[in-house]
Specification:
It is a single chain. With about 400 residues, the protein is of the alpha/beta class. The chain folds into two domains: about 210 residues, Rossmann fold; about 170 residues, Glycogen Phosphorylase B (Rossmann fold). The chain is globular, with a radius of gyration of 21 Å.
Length: about 400
Amino acid sequence: MRILHVLAQLPTRTGSGVYFSNLIENLKKYNYQQEAVFGTQDDYKWDVLDEKYIHSVEFKTEELPFPIVGMSDVMPYETTLYSEMTGEMFERWINAFKNRLISIKKRYKPDIIFTHHLWILSSIVVEVFPDSKIIGIFHNTDLRQAQKNPGIYQKYVRNLDRLDLIFSASEQQKDEIINTYKDISRDKIIALGGGFDQNIFYPAETKEYSKKIRLVYSGKIDPSKGIYELLKVYKNLNLEDITLDIIGTPDEKNKKELETYIKDDKSIKVYNVKDQKELGEELRKKDIFLMPSFYEGLGLTAIEALASGLYVVTTEIEALMTLLGKEIEESGIIKYVPLPRIYDIDKPVAEDLPKFREELKEAILCQIAKVRNKQSCLTDKRDSIKRFSWEALVDRINEIIVDL
């Protein structure tokens, strides 16, 4: 079977990029012929496939003299916003990706195409490959782009009803997809969940406890992720035996905002990691993972933390709660905090925040007590977590494409 993978961004560093790379890596055991198209810049290197099977579209060049266009308004690398693109920029962007795809079609003729995001590039893929089976992979950021930029959506996103299947992370997302993309029928959408890389996120062989209880946040440094509410709660805990690591790269605005909260607090560290492998190594050194986000498509980082042997505190992300199920929730290894009322997708109603902070504080204190008592949080739940690995997810994907 010949498979083509298509992504408009870097194939790492964001949720869709991680999905892209892990899907390819875990399909290798089936010995399919795989090739990939993706956006790149700044001498970026990616070695999941040999160079001869990679057809990158390079930004910040004569062909595309601007940074990669990001699906999120806040990205962990330099990007251009769709909302700021001119007509000429769109034309250059579309032609660059279309030319790569047409060139591949002349030589490769894929049986199956995985195209990431229900957005402009997927429309191009459908147009160029009318005779291939095409699976669109929904990541939630595509929905946000459609909602925030309806003019762009109406002008450039077409014919997604011609996708053979769409993979979503949850049942809830099916409703969001058909409500936004009017021509897509529900029976084409399969809720698959998400996966963690079992070779990167796993518990330490022996849990080592420190004199300090080590809390960690990892993700975008942005108000929508609840980071500033978390810092308020952390300060309010006023405990001598805790530390907080914030893993991520803030932009200039959020860097200044962070500094106003942290000030001279030596128990808080802000730093980044170079890749997922380094993130896994950092997580295994910690005790409690915090995800106070006001909006997540799935909340995969919480699953990665569970797989790494941490307790977790997170907001009530419906897709995550459904995926993990009652058994894991009732085990106590994860604590859910009710969300405040939300508007504009990811903004909390201000009057609800005091209650939110109090409930977040209670959940963190609950998990801190377990660490103080040196309760190992995954001794009897490791098999339950393993079923969310990329290996297990891709095995299911393979069953689907074999019958497509």
